[in-house]
Amino acid sequence: MEAFSVEVGPSESVKIPESVLRRDQARQEELERRRNTKESQSVSEENTAYFSAAFSAEKAAIEELISSCSSADHEKITNMLEEATLKTQQLQKFLNDSTMFLTQYELRQAQAALQKLQASITELKPKKKFAFRSRTVTAGSSQQPPAAAASSGSTEKRAGLGTAVDGGAVSAAQCGFSNVQNEVLIKRSEEMQQRDVLLSHLTNCKVRLYGSPSTLHIKNVRDCQILSGPVSSSVFVDECTGSTLGFACQQLRTHNTTDTQIYLHVTSRAIIEDCQGVRFAPFNWTYDGMDNDFKVSGLDPERNNWSEVDDFNWLAAGTPSPNWTVIAESERICSWEPAS
Questions:
Q1: First and final C-alpha spacing in the chain
Q2: Per-residue pLDDT band at 239 (split at 50, 70, 90)
Q3: What is the pTM (predicted TM-score) of this model?
Q4: Residue whose C-alpha is closest to residue 228's, from 285, 168, 291
Q5: DSSP helix/strand/coil, 309
Q6: C-alpha angle with apex 320: 315 to 322, nearest 5 degrees?
Q7: Of 48, 100, 102, 209, most Cβ neighbours within 10 A?
Q8: Cα–chain-centroid distance for residue 265?
Q9: pLDDT tier for residue 137 given thresholds of 50, 70 and 90
Q10: Any long-range contacts for 225-229 (C-beta under 8 Å, 24+ apart)?
């Protein structure tokens, strides 16, 4: 057995077996590991406590601002809602930046609180009557009203889909498309910049959203292709089947969705719940002006956690969720057909 000599005096030395030295080194390493773990846990607890206090305080301030709208005049309400919207977006960013040390329960509670704030703001925003956006009519074409043109199905046929509809019914608080089949649907940047966008009850539609929405809600869609410019805060997907989606956002919440591909740029983490057959790839749609829309949205184009997905129905540690996968590079869409 190999041993090392250690001098203990001017003329004495003691031989220490190598096995003893190894055990001592292992003991020192274990002590160091425990010390680091304790320090890390302490930092995490401090961060969580700070987040909870800061989030609650800012949430209370926004709720007070919303509550004050009931006794304010019209002009003040508009300004107060704009301030509440800005504060909510800032609170959303604070949550996104804190996800690394929050538990799933804490994350879900905070996201639910933010959704409630956003819903309260949307309810208070003044509504505008149903209206169609006017269309540009080229020389020599018939002066057919937009509503008639949309229903006739006789113009701008593309890719086997129906009429390309540019614009649609909008409100001051929300814009989007609902109850449409077999059509190309387009929103331009000036129509939806920093507004809430709703896409609901769509079947076999191709949708293009140019610009930067505040939030994007996709609900009850089937066999659709939906591409959006960068979304400032959240994208909510519910009851989506057999579709292809593409967007950039701060956070993604997906519910009750099956057999759907999502080309994603997300600066926090994607969350799925009650989903099956959802597949992810990095967001790769581009259009003229997208760089400026990223600046408007406040998203970091260099920070993309597209493959970091939390499945709230799958809590088995160390085992991948069977409800989502990554799209193989050879199967990804590389070139998107223009819709206009």
A1: 81
A2: very high
A3: 0.56
A4: 285
A5: strand
A6: 90
A7: 209
A8: 8
A9: very low
A10: 226/199, 227/285, 227/336, 228/197, 229/189, 229/287, 229/290, 229/293, 229/297
